[in-house]
UniProtKB/TrEMBL annotation:
Keyword Hydrolase in record: yes
Listed name of the protein: beta-N-acetylhexosaminidase
SUPFAM superfamilies named among the record's database cross-references: (Trans)glycosidases
Organism: Anaerocolumna jejuensis DSM 15929
EC number(s) per entry: 3.2.1.52
């Protein structure tokens, strides 16, 4: 589709390039103003917007209608529905396992199935863009933001699984945005909070991080999301990838041949807002070659960014051709993924068939890392755990009522002990005194490589001669810091589907046959 830009007002064009959100389940007056007065034409939804399937569908239908009436063109409505620790859909929907759990199954077809399950539900709800899959290669065990969101530390595994999920979404009529180009897996800083740096040159990136992205592009990826990361060997100025013309135009467009939409990660994240400012970041992103600008939360920043882009175009800082080319490309893809603003049958949302498929994937992904037979559970076994917490702003809000120890003890018919997520010496001592009569302990670890008190307690229990089964409920890197004689299960996620699957494994009703998709350092104990 060829769209002439000659009759368009500049503000109308810029509105097509903005994606924003709103803070409640109901559409706010501030959002209506952005749609009607600033012609903002794309929306991102978060968990707080999504109460139940019926409400989500009504909200999305309303948004599609408002945006089409205001702009004369379809809307993109997007969500971060990766699966696992990053899910936004409401409770009755079927949230698929995350990347690392799926990769642990050894079955790439499960990634495709996860894409189909996710895409089918999104489309029925009125959502036509999924900001997934993650194509980052998690090569840094200390990465605070990617971790289990990545399929593997092996780029070819990431390629295999990530592209299968991408194709599943495509086959359900949802536009996937593969992320975070050119790679967020080798960082030790969370770009929500700071500005990460990756000291790799192009040759090194081509041999690792870029493998999944290049393959996705060759296989028809319609949208790529940028990362807020400095790559000083690719961009000589101190600009993150999102603001780098060398990376977005020189590398992504020209060298890799990408012709789809370039969308930024949120420009309100710390990596942009704290170091450059959101509005200036938006201008630099457009100059770099970005087309869809995510400003997810703050209406005042959306207005400021639009006004600053208008000024930059008027001053010749941004050639108007950049704007025209971006809008033309966006509209082409909008026609392809357009959703008619009408209510549809949503009985498919969270169907029995979908939930059975998710449980099967979860069971097959649980991974027995140690060679020994799992310890027998008796009524005197104690399950230890802490409540989950949001370790990064990217992850979903957590169920504050769900406690691994309490839940699993109820399922297994034994006792439980609640400990802090990072117990100190005094708390470790108190826990040990309560475990003196326990022959065995099941310890649910939650990012123990960051909360090392968990690992100190697990090792101390083991060294007292008790059998310990350590279960990682997030990143499996905790195992590298545990004694060799500790039994080890990787479960990757903290939710009731995983806990129910764990019960079957711990009771020896199901043999955990998953395989870790990442490499662990050898424990030194």
């Amino acid at each position: 589709m060829v769209v002439s830009m000659k009759e368009w007002k500049l503000r109308d064009k810029i509105g097509q390039m903005i994606m924003t959100g709103f803070p409640t389940a109901d559409i706010t007056p501030e959002l209506i103003e952005l749609i009607e007065e600033y012609k903002v034409a794309n929306i991102i939804l978060f968990s707080y917007n999504l109460c139940n399937a019926e409400q989500v569908q009504h909200t999305c239908t309303d948004l599609h209608l408002r945006i089409e009436q205001s702009t004369g063109h379809p809307a993109f409505i997007a969500v971060d529905q990766e699966g696992g620790v990053v899910t936004r859909l409401p409770g009755e929907a079927c949230n698929v396992p995350g990347a690392m759990l799926i990769a642990a199954t050894g079955k790439p077809e499960y990634a495709y199935q996860a894409g189909r399950i996710t895409g089918k539900q999104l489309r029925k709800l009125g959502i036509n863009v999924n900001l997934a899959p993650v194509l980052d290669v998690n090569s840094n065990p200390d990465n605070p933001v990617i971790g289990v969101r990545s399929y593997s530390s092996d780029p070819y595994q990431v390629e295999r699984y990530g592209i299968n999920m991408m194709k599943g979404l495509l086959d359900e009529g949802v536009m996937p945005a593969v992320k975070h180009f050119p790679g967020h897996g080798n960082t030790a800083t969370d770009s929500h909070m700071g500005l990460p740096v990756v000291e790799k040159d192009l040759s090194e990136l081509m041999d690792d991080e870029l493998i999944p992205f290049f393959s996705a592009i060759k296989q028809g990826a319609p949208c790529v999301m940028t990362s807020h990361i400095l790559f000083p060997k690719l961009e000589k100025d101190k600009k993150p990838a999102t603001m780098s013309r060398a990376i977005l135009t020189g590398l992504l467009r020209e060298q890799l041949g990408f012709q789809g939409i370039i969308i930024t990660d949120c420009l309100e994240m710390g990596a942009i807002q704290s170091f450059y400012g959101t509005a200036e970041g938006a201008v630099e992103a457009v100059k770099a070659g970005a087309e869809l600008l995510c400003i997810s939360h703050t209406p005042a920043l959306v207005k400021e960014a639009i006004q600053r882009i208008e000024e930059a175009v008027s001053a010749g800082e941004i050639p108007v051709e950049y704007i025209d080319r971006a809008v033309s490309n966006i509209l082409k893809w909008k026609e392809k993924y357009r959703i008619e603003p009408e209510l549809k049958d949503i009985s498919v949302i969270g169907s029995k068939e979908q939930k059975e498929a998710v449980l099967r994937m979860t069971l097959e992904g649980i991974t027995k890392v140690s060679p020994m037979e799992l310890p027998e559970v008796t009524k005197d076994t104690v399950v230890i755990g802490s409540y989950a917490y949001r370790s990064t702003l990217a992850s979903s809000s957590v169920d504050k009522e769900l406690h691994f120890g309490k839940y699993m003890a109820g399922k297994l018919g034994c006792r439980y002990l609640e400990v802090p997520v990072n117990p100190g010496e005094e708390e470790i001592g108190a826990a040990m005194s309560q475990l003196k009569d326990a022959p065995s302990v099941i310890y649910g670890l939650y990012n123990g490589h960051l909360n090392t008190g968990q690992l100190a307690l697990a090792n101390k229990i083991s060294r007292e001669g008790k059998e310990v089964l350590a279960v990682t409920l997030r990143n499996p890197y905790d195992f590298s810091l545990l004694d060799n004689k500790i039994h080890k299960l990787a479960a990757f996620e903290y939710n009731t589907v995983v806990f129910d699957a764990l019960e079957e494994v711990i009771r020896r009703q199901y043999n955990a046959a998953g395989k870790l998709p990442v490499t662990l350092k050898q424990a030194e104990h």
